[in-house]
């Protein structure tokens, strides 16, 4: 499924908050935000920057504001999405559709959009360096047969190494692992990253 199909499926799924999240979606779609689907949630962006996501869970639903820490929050309603883990993201939780005050929610959404347009966001902290990657046995065996490929792999950035490792490790069937290996070994030898074509 592409992102639009995944989004439609998310909102169409039978769930006790189905009507409630549809209300939130309607409010968001009245803005300039583009609708996409990331991390298993409908996510809304402007200039390809994440602004908010609509989420539903067993006991609550709500909006994640990716840079919610910068919202003025006049209702004092926003919570840290994951205390101790998330720095900028803030969550507005609802427990029933009747709690949605459309004017207030729209005000928060519009403020989040304006902040993003102004570039108000938490600077990214440098990613902790990946010093070593656990190489799957299939890749290790291929490297033993092709030392040049192993040498090229070691010259790749840790991030690119990790992409290749996960690509093989995430294949569930042996046949898939074999076909993926056939695809990536020439790329590694050429010093290319798995997703360089998309960067």
From TrEMBL:
<feature type="domain" description="YdhG-like">
    <location>
        <begin position="19"/>
        <end position="113"/>
    </location>
</feature>
<dbReference type="Pfam" id="PF08818">
    <property type="entry name" value="DUF1801"/>
</dbReference>
<dbReference type="InterPro" id="IPR014922">
    <property type="entry name" value="YdhG-like"/>
</dbReference>
<dbReference type="Pfam" id="PF13376">
    <property type="entry name" value="OmdA"/>
</dbReference>
<protein>
    <recommendedName>
        <fullName>YdhG-like domain-containing protein</fullName>
    </recommendedName>
</protein>
<dbReference type="InterPro" id="IPR016786">
    <property type="entry name" value="YdeI_bac"/>
</dbReference>
């Amino acid at each position: 499924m592409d992102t639009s199909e995944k989004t439609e499926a998310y909102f169409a799924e039978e769930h006790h908050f189905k009507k409630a999240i549809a209300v939130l979606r309607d409010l968001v779609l009245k803005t300039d935000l583009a609708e996409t689907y990331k991390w298993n949630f409908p996510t809304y962006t402007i200039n390809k920057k994440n602004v908010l996501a609509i989420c539903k869970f067993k006991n609550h639903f709500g909006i994640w504001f990716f840079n919610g820490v910068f919202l003025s929050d006049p209702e004092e309603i926003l919570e840290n999405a994951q205390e101790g883990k998330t720095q900028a993201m803030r969550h507005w939780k609802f427990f029933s559709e009747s709690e949605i005050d459309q004017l207030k929610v729209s005000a928060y959404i519009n403020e989040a959009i304006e902040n993003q347009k102004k570039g108000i966001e938490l600077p990214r902290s440098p990613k902790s360096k990946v010093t070593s990657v656990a190489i799957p046995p299939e890749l290790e065996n291929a490297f033993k047969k092709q030392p040049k490929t192993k040498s090229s792999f070691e010259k790749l950035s840790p991030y690119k190494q990790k992409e290749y490792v996960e690509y093989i490790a995430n294949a569930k069937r042996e046949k898939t692992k074999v076909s993926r290996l056939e695809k990536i070994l020439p790329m590694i030898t050429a010093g290319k990253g798995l997703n360089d074509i998309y960067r």
